[in-house]
Amino acid sequence: MAPSVAELQTPGGVDVITNLKHAVKENLKTGPSYPFYYPHFDLEEKFPPIEPFEFTDPGSRANPAKPHLLTANTTTHHLSPYLGTEITGVQISQLTPEGLDELALYTAERKVLVFRDQDFKDLSPERQIEIASHFGPIQKHPTSGNAKGFPEFHVVYRDTEHDRFGDPDRANLTGWHSDVSYERQTPGTTFFFILEQPETGGGDTLFLSQVEAYNRLSPEFQKRLEGLRAVHSAVAQAEFSRKRGGPIRREPIETEHPVVRVHPVTGEKALYVNQGFTRRIVGFKTEESEYLLKFLFDHIAKGADFQIRGTYQPGTVVVWDNRVTAHSATRDFDKVHRRHAVRLTPQAEVPIPG
Ligand SMILES: [Fe+2]
């Protein structure tokens, strides 16, 4: 049955349809607040394969007491015992190289750091790239929107006119993944800064600890995973882009990674499979591989007791360690609202088998 007029009334007395029409008009009228980062797709843009590079994690140089990062002015609030810490009273842009080393270590330890009230979004693009490059060479995404002339920026953007996020065939859009895990040298300390977000709330990022996901398994099961390798593939992502008329800037690759990896600084073991990119277990028959991966994906997705929600306020920068976490976007806001964010994705070491 269609909703009655009363059901469409908001407490303020304005009906929902009028509100939506107004939001669409405003959205189209105003344009993005940060047009420099409007997603840019150039079908002619091409990148060569990524060459191997030497990598030393900056966290390995850090003072464990973190005196440059956690000063008397800094407050921290843990979001869960396993991962996630909200931080106020420090500007990432003001950190010394020692402070950035400590940021790498703290991110590895806490897995996700939510920095509030940052000036990061208003720095020059060159300075933003310089800061993130402290943590490794920045991955240039093969298919996503970037910023014109600055392919280091991976732009996440949704509004009425631009929605690459939807999939009408899915009942929900939760999609656990670790970013571009198909790369040979996978991302480590990763930066994500919000430019605009829906007034209605929503658009949080879900995160989970792959260390705790591993720890929850029985010693016998952990032993079975030891030595296994899995294929991570960029092929579906490239195909998705091609079907929608988007670019394929670099030929898609497939890479084998250990199912359990060790963090180079903390020494913690983490599961390293994700539904987004992990396709099969090397050496297993199809049914065996599907059986094991289904269990691991379910285990990860259902682990609400080792997950958090990263929330956004104007000026929020979220930093996470892609080696020991998985995350999912939350598409719980209507596309009449604009959400605009940018990721900088430094690559780290070839995964160390656990
Ligand atoms: Fe992601």
From TrEMBL:
Gene Ontology molecular function terms on file: 2-oxoglutarate-dependent dioxygenase activity; metal ion binding
Listed Gene3D superfamilies: Clavaminate synthase-like
Cellular component, GO, one term: cytoplasm
Pfam families: TauD
UniProt keyword list: Dioxygenase, Iron, Metal-binding, Oxidoreductase
Domain (TauD/TfdA-like): residue spans on this chain: 77-345
Domain of life: Eukaryota
Alphabetized PANTHER family for the sequence: ALPHA-KETOGLUTARATE-DEPENDENT SULFONATE DIOXYGENASE
Family affiliation: Belongs to the TfdA dioxygenase family.
Name this protein carries in UniProt: TauD/TfdA-like domain-containing protein
Lineage of origin: Eukaryota, Fungi, Dikarya, Basidiomycota, Agaricomycotina
